[in-house]
Design brief:
Layout (H helix, E strand, L loop, with lengths): L18 E8 L5 H17 L3 E4 L6 H10 L1 E4 L12 E3 L7 H8 L4 E3 L3 H15 L3 E5 L5 H7 L7 E4 L2 H6 L7 E5 L5 H14 L13 H14 L4 E5 L5 H12 L5 E4 L15 E6 L5 H14 L1 E8 L11 H4 L8
Parallel strand pairs: 1-11, 1-12, 2-3, 2-4, 4-5, 6-7, 6-8, 9-10, 9-11
The protein binds iron/sulfur cluster.
Iron/sulfur cluster binds next to helix 1, helix 4 and helix 8.
């Protein structure tokens, strides 16, 4: 039989995938503090061998944590889980209370501090205001490791946590001068609202020299706002315990996107969520690597004819120095 005389009927061709425009919000994903923290763990493994202990998830992302575990990092929540084997411990990017390095010193542990320099800056500002006689109002979320770390820079009772505008309206700090500090990863708009309330009640409230909400948080929220009104759905790639990722999802909906979802990675994302939609957006929290964004895009391509549009609102060129022991020759002492 002459096959060429009987070409494949066009009716059997795969149906065309529906078109979908995907707006990629930029900046998104890794910030300089997260990048530095991960490098510290990797370089410490190279320098000191395994295991290298890490107190708390180095950054709030399971993919990152599991990747470092595979290289020999051992994650613990407290120092007393670490044996006296001479191997170093690294403090996570979120910062630690002063009691943690003190306990490490007491055990003569080798430690490296991966606290983001922008979190350390908040610590120093809070200390400066406290030394000047002020009580500190810390705007942030109870229990978040960064908040625990910042409160733990000062003696008990020196800091009062204010979580939202409602608490700002009722908080009763001790009499005397007041200053505020904030968690670095808050919603810019919510924090402005909390500060409005506090400033009305305490007009003499002192501010940090430079805004505490960091450049990465601010830029990622601005990028999500820039795409929100054009999107019928925004997918934020990030972990449920990542403060800045959770804020991005909230910002997306408040800025006019009817629906925003937080997904840890591509395999957890159901592309059918975009059925019937024409334009969706994607962003990623500061602790989510770009490969996880690519996974989500790949899931979408399985189902749609995807057109990507980059919407970038800011360029980021910040790089933070590594701790000195990882910059200098092997004989260096650990700070
Ligand atoms: S989100 Fe901001 S404060 Fe947190 S690690 Fe990144 S740069 Fe530092």
């Amino acid at each position: 039989m002459d096959q060429t005389a009987n070409p494949r009927p066009t009716g059997l061709q795969a149906p065309a995938k529906p078109p979908l425009t995907v707006l990629l919000a930029g900046p998104r994903g890794f910030c300089a503090g997260v990048d530095r923290a991960i490098k510290i763990v990797e370089l410490a493994i190279e320098r000191y061998g395994t295991p290298v202990y890490v107190r708390h998830e180095i950054v709030h992302n399971r993919f990152v944590v599991e990747g470092l575990q595979a290289k020999g990092a051992v994650f613990v929540e407290e120092l007393d889980e670490i044996p006296d084997d001479g191997q170093p411990v690294i403090f996570s990017a979120h910062g630690v209370p002063r009691s943690v390095p003190a306990a490490a010193d007491a055990r003569q542990m080798l430690y490296l501090d991966a606290t983001c320099p922008l979190v350390s800056k908040v610590h120093r500002e809070a200390e400066r205001h406290f030394a000047g006689g002020s009580h500190i109002l810390l705007i942030g979320h109870a229990g978040h490791p960064e908040v625990v770390g910042t409160m733990g820079q000062l003696p008990p009772g020196a800091v009062t946590l204010v979580e939202d505008a409602e608490q700002a309206a009722t908080v009763q700090p001790p009499p005397g001068p007041l200053a505020y500090a904030t968690q670095t990863t808050l919603s810019v708009d919510d924090t402005a609202e909390v500060l409005d309330v506090l400033r009305r009640r305490f007009p003499e409230l002192s501010a940090p020299v430079k805004e505490d909400i960091c450049y990465a948080t601010t830029n990622r929220q601005a990028a999500v706002k820039a795409i929100a009104e054009r999107c019928e759905l925004i997918v934020v790639v990030g972990a449920a315990n990542s403060s800045n990722s959770v804020r991005l999802r909230e910002v997306a909906e408040r800025a006019g996107c009817p629906r925003a979802v937080l997904v840890p990675r591509g395999r957890d994302f159901d592309p059918a969520l975009a059925d019937g939609l024409r334009t969706i957006g994607i962003s990623a929290g500061a602790s989510a690597p770009e490969v996880l964004v690519e996974e989500v895009v790949a899931r979408l391509r399985e189902r749609f004819d995807v057109t990507i549009e980059d919407v970038t609102v800011a360029e980021e060129k910040i790089i933070f120095n590594l701790p000195r022991p990882l910059r200098t020759p092997r004989t260096a002492t650990v700070e």
